[in-house]
Design goal:
434 Repressor (Amino-terminal Domain), alpha+beta, 277 residues, five-stranded antiparallel sheet, 12 helices, 2 domains, Helix-turn-helix domain protein, single chain, Beta-Lactamase, Cro/C1-type_HTH, Lambda_DNA-bd_dom_sf
Length: 277
């Protein structure tokens, strides 16, 4: 099955089932059940009681019968399923109960933000849109990750680089975590931008050509990671660690500014060697 269009009803049904099945009845003070139960997690009846809705309503939602739950019901379901903040936002997007962010889809860097990326040197920096397209970058970013100028415009996408580029694929020391975070962000973006055909096309390509992506995508994890650290295996200066921060401009919320810096003195020395070259 492809993702060329976001079928919100089917995805809402699948997401609700997946979140229900991961819950431990013991965490809710519910009596222990026999081991040989048909499905893991909570029963539909238990979720309905926790959310204050009818069992039939939960059944119809999980069977993708075209219901559009109210804001109050979405909030109740999010609480009953103990959703994390990013999962809650995803649920609101699927239920079409969150207004779209102003700014729309963007494929080119906003000029002031592109200048800011250049001005951030010597810190590596790049400008992304919600689908991970690299819209602007500075020389330090090119030295640290990949020379974006050498890539065809259609491949200037950080998720494609991580999954498909023969050199960047081996770049991340903790590759599993990096891929999981990227997929979780992409799933959130997919629900928030259901009309973005290019994003859906990327997901279709990754699902068909990369078993790693397909496996993680099917788990339906949702997360928008704004800061953290990554260990990189650089071909010229060896292993180094970077801390990154992702900022969302108020006037252009679809463009994301990613700034990196060395995480420790040894990594800073590696940064300095790269700049010297």
């Amino acid at each position: 099955m492809t993702t060329s269009a976001v079928d919100r009803n089917r995805e809402l049904a699948a997401f609700l089932r997946s979140r229900r099945e991961r819950l431990d009845p013991g965490d809710f003070g519910l009596p222990a059940r026999e081991r040989a139960r048909r499905t893991p997690g909570l029963r539909r009846e238990e979720v309905a009681e926790l959310a204050g809705v009818s069992v039939d309503y939960v059944v119809r939602l999980e069977q993708a019968r075209g219901l559009r739950p109210s804001v109050e019901v979405v909030e109740a379901l999010a609480g009953a399923l103990r959703l994390a903040p990013d999962e809650r936002t995803y649920l609101f997007d699927l239920a079409r109960r969150r207004p779209p962010e102003r700014g729309g889809l963007t494929t080119e860097a906003v000029a002031p933000l592109a200048r800011l990326v250049a001005d951030l040197s010597p810190l590596p920096a790049m400008l992304l849109n919600h689908r991970f397209d690299i819209l602007a970058w500075n020389p330090e970013l090119a030295a640290l990750l990949v020379d974006v100028d050498t890539l065809p415009p259609a491949r200037r996408n950080s998720m494609w680089l991580c999954l498909m580029h023969p050199e960047v694929r081996e770049f991340y020391v903790d590759r599993e975590r990096v891929v999981r975070e990227g997929v979780a962000h992409m799933r959130a973006a997919w629900a928030a931008h259901p009309d973005d055909v290019a994003l859906s096309g990327l997901i279709d390509e990754f699902t068909a050509r990369n078993p790693e992506f397909a496996r993680v995508w099917a788990e339906r994890d949702v997360m928008a990671t704004g800061r953290g650290s990554k260990a990189l295996r650089h071909p010229e200066v060896g292993v180094l660690s970077v801390q990154y921060e992702t900022l969302k401009p108020l006037q252009d919320p679809d463009q994301l500014l990613v700034i990196m810096r060395a995480a420790d003195p040894a990594s800073q020395a590696a940064f300095d060697r790269l700049r010297a070259r």
